[in-house]
Amino acid sequence: MSGNGVTVKVEQLTRMFGKFTAVDHIDLEVGKGEIFGFLGPNGAGKSTTIKMLCGLLTPTSGGGYVGGLDIMRQSEEIKKIIGYMSQRFSLYDDLTVEQNIDFFSGIYSVPRSKAQGRKDWALSMAGLMDRRGALTKTLPTGVKQRLALGCAILHEPPILFLDEPTSGVDPISRRNFWNLIYMMAEGGATVFVTTHYMEEAEYCDRLALIYRGKIIAEGSPKTLKQSAMTKEVLEVEMENPVEAMEVLFTSGFDPSIFGSALHVTVDDGMVAEPAIRKALADAGMTPLRIEKIAPSLEDVFVNLIEVS
Questions:
Q1: Helix H segments across the chain?
Q2: What is the pLDDT of residues 131-183, one digit of tens each?
Q3: pLDDT score for 1
Q4: Do 155 and 238 reside in the same domain of the chain?
Q5: In the chain, how many domains are there?
Q6: Do 30 and 36 touch, CB atoms closer than 8 A?
Q7: Fewer CB atoms inside 10 Å of the end CB: C or N, the chain?
Q8: Are residues 40 and 145 in the same domain?
Q9: Which of 208, 226, 244 is the last residue of a domain?
Q10: pTM value?
Q11: Are residues 284 and 186 in the same domain?
Q12: Nearest to 215 by CA among 32, 97, 40
């Protein structure tokens, strides 16, 4: 964990919609200057949690603090010290680039003496110095994403909440966006980011994995891969992975496709390998390669879901 002190802390945080429990008694802490990833599939409770932390949704029970402010009683004060970027980018498509920046500058009460400097920074960061008069809806998704980030941090907040910020953008734009996140964390900002992209989770200092409203594991990416995975993973390279996956599944194994290979989660790789070869041979298939590998975060997550 980089930085000192706790910036976000929640205890038994719960949110219900009628009889449905979207967030189920979760506890977590995020340290100052930390990039904290909240990882889980769609519908797991990530966005509901982040909205409660940002003062946009009232918890059903439990509580917590953001920047020392109570999420139950001081939601309006919290909004002044955070930046929030939703997966829909929170921009107004029918306004120009410059009009969007001016609007959010006013919303966040950026002092007039700083407004022009912050606008120039946002335009430069988004690569839009020469397109300030363009309608926002005409921008490519990756550029619009950077503009949304710039608008969210015009007031230089110490805490930044990003809700699925890279959903729908291309891999290069996603990588560039994470470079910006690193720069903000190095400058002392705390970044709380939700994602369902497993490869993005590797970029975080620490993670919490959420499934069906409950946190099922927490720790650094390295720690989770070392301690939360109770089984071994065999990588099986095949010319026809889809057909091979069906054969192994019907033979009692638990395969998943990773590119042109399969990952098969097993109790004991030494025992499982000959059984996998036999199952494939009986179906007229020969693997190009079978080897034990270190589990990926996706392997860990799938394994944790199965045992939870």
A1: 46-53, 75-81, 97-107, 112-126, 141-152, 171-186, 198-201, 221-227, 241-250, 269-282, 297-307
A2: 999 999 999 888 888 899 899 989 999 999 998 888 777 788 788 888 888 98
A3: 37
A4: no
A5: 2
A6: yes
A7: C
A8: yes
A9: 226
A10: 0.83
A11: no
A12: 40
